[in-house]
Write a structure and sequence with these properties.
heterodimer, A: alpha/beta, Rossmann fold, four-stranded parallel β-sheet, B: alpha/beta, 9 strands, Trp_synthase_alpha_AS (chain B), aromatic amino acid biosynthesis (chain B), Trp_synthase_suA (chain B), EC 4.2.1.20 (chain B)
Chain lengths: ~400, ~260
């Protein structure tokens, strides 16, 4: 079933493996997206909100002290952590709420792991006056209590998910079940470049604003493309957004950093490209952490946002075609980078983004002082302070 | 192996009870299957437990979680199927990743070897089924694709075109689960589907009472009952489920003269 070039696929990855009930809604969504993505009014509304509501463009900051400390390439930080609600997630939720509104959907549902996407969804639902329900693994509602309260304050209902492993993958299952039952008036704002077509492409397009800004800012700051862009990959929306304009471009290395958790060899990790096998989860063919019998395994990472047992199908394609490189970083290395960035640059990154920071050191040293390396700092670390304190105390 | 064709008769609706392989226990599932056959099942639908069954509601999710804990792997499921395939046609309900993990061809070889007559794959819609359908056809394993209330007429025709066993008509936009009465619109959907496909049409999702089964049998070639039976197995084991299924069987047989 691989290597077939057809809509909804990236090479042999992607597709639409969902119950028949959803097919009509996905076709409708695809048609609406095709219609509006180039519609001048839609684009204008999205751009205006990106500027005034989100605060775009986010800065491309030269990390002077970090550059000196590493003694290699010049290191730049793409500051998605400064976007409204504290992460890149808002780029996607904003695009999708505009679409939902034009499709006449009155109700919004979403899944969330750590709660960042849930908060970004609750935020745009509030902005557009929509009813909003967010599914969150029961386990995660306890670990991320603060984000539960944030969502509730924004008017969303948070439904704890008690099925399966009670984490992100189960929250996605439950959101899909809700959608199947309420597909007439409900739009599902999926949080990453996963799920059935057209989601992986649509979410990528909404996140590509990151890469377009990097391109323009790089020209302005150092007169050419970056030599490398480093981004963390759970399911992979911030990475694909940062990479996309540069795919296939000579001289730009695209490096995705997966969560190695306790180490790939231990089986307790979130690195679907490094340790997964081809399979189908949540509607798409991609690399999936699974048993030999095809049962989905739980992922593990210190950062809840990388704690997902599959990866976006386009990343699978980029890896297999050699268009991007994928590596992994352990919990411990990510925590070190978390502290390092705080102490050298005064920025506490999200633990997800700390994975990218950690690997960027190797890249910077390898490329040397003539090169420019961009780290996509996908989110801020406030949400991780407790987790980090606990983990660092134990180190 | 018993084929699906003989299970559908013009004078009465086929009774298609569902069980999750490995629930309540590995041995208990065999008792459930035996009770279904004794109660007059025309086709057995055996569910292969999957960790992430996104078309299923809480009742069946609970059974699959339990079954996986009991160790119900694919080999066990095929063995369970093989034990009944001589007596009654067996259809496997299986999520696509369980098929794909084994390898489509190997899965089909093994299913055919176990005497499995047909497959229901809830997350393999018609558009993704092309190549797999050919492989299944070559081994004499029938495809039983789903249609839903949200399927357009054109899609129903398309789905009918790839169906080689029966069309599984989903009574309601939603997941599996026991519902009060037959969902409004189910009969109309059945009519819409039957006008457009040439294979038998079975109705499933939410048939939880004898009355709903009888009502559906006026239009459907087959009645699929899952969650209600799994509830009964949970409450009173194979005996309770088999007893209730016999009531349904009798009611369907009683209704045949009047409505069909």
């Amino acid at each position: 079933m691989r290597q077939r070039a057809r809509p909804g696929y990236f090479g042999g990855f992607g597709g639409r493996f969902v119950p028949e009930t959803l097919i009509h809604a996905l076709e409708e969504l695809e048609a609406a997206y095709e219609r509006y993505r180039t519609d001048p009014e839609f684009v204008e509304e999205l751009d205006a909100l990106a500027k005034d509501f989100v605060g775009r463009p986010t800065p491309l900051m030269f990390a002077e002290r970090l550059t000196r400390k590493w003694g290699g390439a010049r290191v730049y930080l793409k500051r998605e952590d400064l976007a409204h609600t504290g992460a890149h997630k808002i780029n996607n939720t904003l695009g999708q709420i505009l679409l939902a509104d034009r499709m006449g959907k009155s109700r919004i549902i979403a899944e969330t792991g750590a709660g960042q996407h849930g908060v970004a969804t609750a935020t745009v639902a509030a902005l557009y006056g929509k009813e909003c329900v967010v599914y969150m693994g029961e386990e995660d509602t306890r670990r991320q209590r603060l984000n539960v309260v944030r969502m509730q304050l924004l008017g969303a209902e948070v439904r704890p998910v008690k099925s399966g492993s009670r984490t992100l993958k189960d929250a996605v299952n439950e959101t899909i079940r809700d959608w199947v039952a309420n597909v007439e008036d409900t739009h599902y704002i999926i949080g990453s470049v996963v799920g059935p077509a057209p989601y992986p492409r649509m979410v990528r397009d909404f996140q590509t604003v990151i890469g377009r800004e990097i391109e323009a800012q790089a020209r302005e700051r150092f007169g050419r493309d970056p030599d490398a862009i480093v981004a963390c990959v759970g399911a992979g929306s911030n990475a694909i957004g940062a990479f996309h304009p540069f795919i296939g471009r000579e001289g730009v290395r695209l490096i995705g950093v997966e969560a190695a958790g306790h180490g790939i060899g231990t089986g307790k990790h979130g690195a679907s490209l490094a340790g997964g096998r081809l399979g189908v989860l949540h509607g798409a063919m991609s690399y999936v952490l699974q048993t030999e019998d095809g049962q989905i395994q739980e992922a593990h990472s210190v950062s809840a946002g990388l704690d997902y047992p599959a990866v976006g199908p386009e990343h699978a394609y980029l890896r297999d075609e050699g268009l991007a490189e994928y590596v992994s970083v352990t919990d411990e290395e990510a925590l070190e980078a978390f502290t390092l960035l705080g102490r050298t640059e005064g920025i506490l990154p999200a633990l997800e983004s700390a994975h990218a920071v950690s690997y960027a050191e190797k890249v910077a040293k390898e490329l040397g002082p003539e090169a420019n390396v961009v780290i996509n700092l996908s989110g801020r670390g406030d949400k991780d302070v407790e987790v980090a304190a606990e983990a660092l105390g134990a180190l | 192996m018993r084929g699906l064709k003989g299970a559908f008769r013009a004078d009465r609706a086929a009774l298609i009870p569902y069980l999750t392989a490995g629930y309540p226990t590995l041995e208990g599932a065999r008792e459930v299957a035996a009770a279904y056959v004794a109660a007059g099942a025309d086709i057995l639908e055996i569910g292969v437990p999957f960790s992430d069954p996104l078309a299923d509601g809480p009742t069946i999710q609970d059974t699959t979680t339990r079954a996986l804990r009991n160790g119900a792997d694919l080999d066990y499921c095929l063995e369970l199927a093989a034990g009944y395939a001589e007596r009654v046609p067996v259809v496997l309900l299986v999520y696509y990743n369980n098929v794909f993990a084994r390898g489509a061809e190997r899965f089909l070889d093994e299913a055919a070897g176990a005497g499995v007559a047909g497959l229901v794959i809830p997350d393999l819609p018609a558009d993704e089924a092309g190549e797999f359908r050919e492989l299944a056809g070559a081994r004499g394993v029938a495809m039983c694709p789903l249609v839903a209330p949200t399927s357009t007429d054109e899609r129903i025709e398309h789905i009918g075109g790839i169906a080689t066993g029966f069309v599984y008509c989903v009574s309601v936009a939603g997941v599996t689960g026991v519902r009060e009465g037959l969902p409004p619109g189910a009969v109309e959907l059945l009519r819409r589907v039957r006008r457009r496909v040439s294979v038998p049409v079975a109705l499933g999702f939410g048939i939880g009472s004898v009355e709903a089964a009888v009502e559906a049998s006026a239009e459907a070639d087959g009645i699929i009952i899952g969650s209600r039976l799994m509830q009964l197995v949970g409450e009173g084991g194979a005996e309770r489920a088999g007893g209730w299924l016999r009531e349904v069987r009798e009611a369907l047989d009683g209704a045949k003269a009047g409505t069909r």
